[in-house]
Hints:
It is built from 3 helices and 7 strands; from the N terminus they run H-E-E-E-E-H-E-H-E-E. By secondary structure, the chain is of the alpha/beta class.
Amino acid sequence: xxxxxxxxxxxxxxxxxxxxxxxxxxxxxxxxxxxxxxxxxxxxxxxxxxxxxxxxxxxxxxxxxxxxxxxxxxxxxxxxxxxxxxxxxxxxxxxxxxxxxxxxxxxxxxxxxxxxxxxxxxxxxxxxxxxxxxxxx
Length: 137
């Protein structure tokens, strides 16, 4: 009787699969650390409320009292046109999210509210300002 030297074995080689899973894990870990949800680092005031809204425009006020609408730095006079340009045409009830450092005086917050109120008067819309907060500890 003649027997073949090469025998067929039914086995799975999982080494390539584990390499692929490891590479995907490394990729997602690296990309998740690169994504920064807040472009401006702020210490937000704390609150116990959990109001969530779809944000159309985000306005930042940092600890140096510098305004930023989206990614564009501005001063008090430039707030109104930048906020108006960030709101899509046809939307009458947009939410302007104000992310202000907790050390910022109230007058700077009122400046943003005044700019949104001026836009509301000009366009007859009902845009609102929502103050972003961090959860209470």
